């Protein structure tokens, strides 16, 4: 078995003449320094240039370049227009319930997000497709938000749709530089923690009627996040997730 309960382990031991009740077995395991825990994942980047690429990204985070901005880009999704379970306040012993769904006729959407590291500003748009054409269109929107004289350092992962020939040609002509995180190290992209906040406070515990309603809720959250009255717990959560960077 992949997971042993105390009664099952006690039955197994009884088969080899070791008789312990479940409580005695629990105490024995605790004495041995063992407890019942959930597994966790670990991440490792096989990129041979990991140190140099990571230092490049972290250096841009630590020190704002002169006459330039540092913008983190990534996509969140796919997002489905279905009930999403979450958590919230409800009467005791009366859990909030969401409808069940067996069909998904509304397709999916992707949130294209951009985070200005030093200005601490988040920007995002929902898109129906996650392809190179949509990525380039969003890059052009980012470029329009800043003066042409300002160089834009775009931090992103190594997805193939982020570095097509058309995108590379466009960035050379528009004072933009692509800064890629190391392979399998997208956790160095600071926009990731902000996607967590959107998932927790916009997507989870919700059942939106249509994409326009979801898009408005997402825009309202981003506007609130960028405003002067940010939820302090959200700030602390974001800081915890930024420790690795």
Describe this protein's structure:
With 245 residues, the protein is of the alpha/beta class. It has 2 domains: 40 residues, no CATH class; 192 residues, Nucleotidyltransferase, domain 5 (2-Layer Sandwich), CATH 3.30.420. Helix content is 38%, strand content 16%. The protein has a 5-stranded mixed β-sheet with strand order 3-2-1-4-5, with helices on both faces. Helix 1 crosses helix 2 and helix 6 crosses helix 7. It starts with 5 loop residues before the first helix and ends with a helix.
Strand and helix layout:
Elements: H1 6-14, H2 22-31, H3 50-62, E1 68-80, E2 108-116, E3 121-127, H4 132-144, E4 151-156, H5 165-173, E5 176-180, H6 191-203, H7 211-226, H8 232-241
Parallel strand pairs: 1-4, 4-5
Antiparallel strand pairs: 1-2, 2-3
Helix pairs in contact: 1-2, 6-7
Query: Radius of gyration over alpha carbons?
Result: 24 Å
Name given to the CATH architecture of the largest domain: 2-Layer Sandwich
- Helicity range of the residues? 25-40%
Q: How many domains?
A: 2
Please describe the biggest sheet, giving its number of strands, its sense, and whether it closes into a barrel: 5 strands, mixed
Work out the helix count. Answer: 8
Structure in a nutshell:
This protein is α/β, with parallel strands linked by helices and 245 residues long. 38% of the residues lie in helices and 16% in strands. Helix 1 (6-14) crosses helix 2 (22-31) and helix 6 packs across helix 7.
